[in-house]
Amino acid sequence: ATTTTQEQTIQDETANWKTYRNEKYRFEVKYPPYYTVTESDQGKSLIIGTPVMPYYSISITENISSLEELKSLWQDSFDELLGRFLKPPEVEIIWKDTVISGKKAIEMSYEQFIGGYTGTTHSTGVIKDSTAYRIKLDNGSEDEYSQILSTFKFISP
Predict the structure, then answer these.
(1) Per-residue pLDDT tens for 73-126?
(2) What is the pTM of this model?
(3) For a Cys staple, 123 with which of 29, 99, 135, 136, CB 3.0–4.6 Å?
(4) How many other CB atoms sit within 10 Å of the CB of residue 10?
(5) How many CB atoms lie within 10 A of CB 27?
(6) Cβ-contact 145, 122 below 8 angstroms
(7) Residue 48: CB partners within 8 Å, gap ≥ 6?
(8) Cβ contacts of 89 within 8 Å, gap of 6 or more
(9) Can you name the residues that pair with 31 across neighbouring β-strands?
(10) Among the listed residues 146, 141, 82, 87, the one whose alpha carbon sits nearest the alpha carbon of residue 114
């Protein structure tokens, strides 16, 4: 299999990254060496970042059968979050189809409106064996996020 120049560049840039491997949920992902990974909830949730600041996160939700179901779950929790604020600003969500580890995936993007961080927040979701994986950009860079996504892959038992 030949790789495109862009893929090759990303592979070169992530060559010295650390690899996080989750045996229970059968996936691995690479992340920059200057970050640490903090796991919680028996490996269902992990944060990639520094002890002070989460830059990216990955969370697992079981018993999700379709991307449509995942999308509506995300939409509901987003609406609930907005509802906690008085007269929240109009926040437009942009949905797009994408591919993660060879599987159809969805991406949810919106302009951040809470806290000191400004910029676009992205969540990318993929489902395997009725388990949903959400990879989220919390405070990191979009370039790094794309690189992390490109290294996310499912591992065989």
Answers:
(1) 999 888 887 777 655 567 788 999 999 999 999 999 988 766 555 678 899 999
(2) 0.86
(3) 136
(4) 18
(5) 22
(6) yes
(7) 20, 31, 35, 36, 37, 54, 55, 56, 57, 58, 148
(8) 113
(9) 18
(10) 82
